[in-house]
Amino acid sequence: MSAKQNKVKARQPRGFVDRNAADLRAQESMLRIIRQVYESYGFEPVETPFFEYTDALGKFLPDSDRPNEGVFSLQDDDEEWLSLRYDLTAPLARFVAQNFEDLPKPYRSYRAGYVFRNEKPGPGRFRQFMQFDADIVGAPSVSADAEMAMMMSDTMEALGIAKGQYVVRVNNRKVLDGILDAVGLEGEAARRLTVLRALDKFDRFGVDGVRLLLGKGRLDESGGKGDFTKGAELSEDAIDRILAIFAFADAGSLARIAGVEKSFGGHARVDEGLAELRSIRQYAAEAGYDDSRVLIDPSVVRGLEYYTGPVFEAELLFDVLNEKGQKVQFGSVGGGGRYDGLVARFMSQPVPATGFSIGVSRLMTALKNLGRLAVDETPGPVVVTVMDRDRMADYQRLAAELRKGLNAPGQPLVPVEVFQGNPKQFGKQLQYADRRGSPVVIIQGGDEKAAGEVQIKDLIEGKRLSSEIEDNATWRAARPAQVSVAESDMVARVREILAAQQADKDAENV
């Protein structure tokens, strides 16, 4: 068999993405800001494995009423089924139940990590993506739910998304469940789920599309597929009553609550949910979070079945261009809610809980569109060039001295590396340093070694001189782009050059 036939094709699995250094640094910068907000509310970190026993995930799987659907699963040597986690909430419920006696109650925790969905990938829909969750377990009061909504508001603003460019919408599954009971769906689990999924698609399909899904069904002709989604087959009267909750697009929180009360008030479940929403609105308003930041919205539906009370959705209100160049509203970047039954699956007692999850990858895209994706700047490395490959020990010694001398505790990191490519063409080494964004290179040939010296080349100043200065007199008067110093002065001189470069950068930013 030929070498060509043995060659493996380099290809990326569908629904998965590679992330380069810039992506990862931007992500870490964003996670750091979110982490600071979460910790300011008293949350502490915890980490759970990527895999859980499949039965621990239960039937609470994304867009599915059947266990094992939508997840990646395998069988271990003990013939136990394991699944990659599809969110960070189900693993937290298992962790809390397993460590219940040792944890403070209420237990405040946050987690950032990748989750996995065995679903058909598409534009903006991945099989692996990162979430950043915060949860309070053991808090029965809706004051905890109000706190979650307020914390999400603080997070958006800390990330540079200004008031008016986002809103945290709050609803209550008790209200939705009561409405479904009121239109005659009590005890009809399948149809209730169909209705909830239809309502959850309001932002995509609008009133007309949701009306079809609540009735006979909807034919999706996008892309020429002609896929038909069976509807909930409700009566026209029931459909009209349900769609009434979407009729308050420009109303404030209290008006929206009053609208639902007018159509469905008197039903015990609805009244209980509306009372909780009034409390959340009061707590948020008195803390300074008005309707422009935290808004009661009875049209919010969260897809997962384990929510039992208030539900939240952080929505971005500005427009972006889609794949076809059309303006569309960005929409949701996170959500969550109360799940009082999830931890209790593992225990003999009820355990109230509420939480919120941010879609990190989606939020990063939003920040890019706003031009506010802050990146923790990591400088390029100081590169020690190689003039003689037989003297690698000398070059490694110089690099070690630079690392030790430039990287004092508490100071910004200065990377240092020895060029490890083919040293034959010195110009290629300078090209490499330039491509790596190196501020400085160190040069020591045989003559410099004999004299106990090194050449230090300021690449940033060199670029400026070559692009801005044309006459020799000005060139000679400028800061030198390359100097010869004693080895003993190398670290101090490199530090001076880096400080001068930073001063120039700060002056440009004023």
UniProtKB/TrEMBL annotation:
Principal location class: cytoplasm
Lipid biosynthesis as UniProt keyword: no
Matching HAMAP family: His_tRNA_synth (MF_00127)
Name of this chain's protein: Histidine--tRNA ligase
Keywords: Aminoacyl-tRNA synthetase, ATP-binding, Cytoplasm, Ligase, Nucleotide-binding, Protein biosynthesis
Biological classification of the source: Bacteria, Pseudomonadati, Pseudomonadota, Alphaproteobacteria, Hyphomicrobiales
MF GO annotations: ATP binding; histidine-tRNA ligase activity
Class in the EC hierarchy, top level: ligase
Organism domain of life: Bacteria
Family listed: Belongs to the class-II aminoacyl-tRNA synthetase family.
CC annotations in GO: cytoplasm
SUPFAM superfamilies, A to Z: Class II aaRS ABD-related, Class II aaRS and biotin synthetases
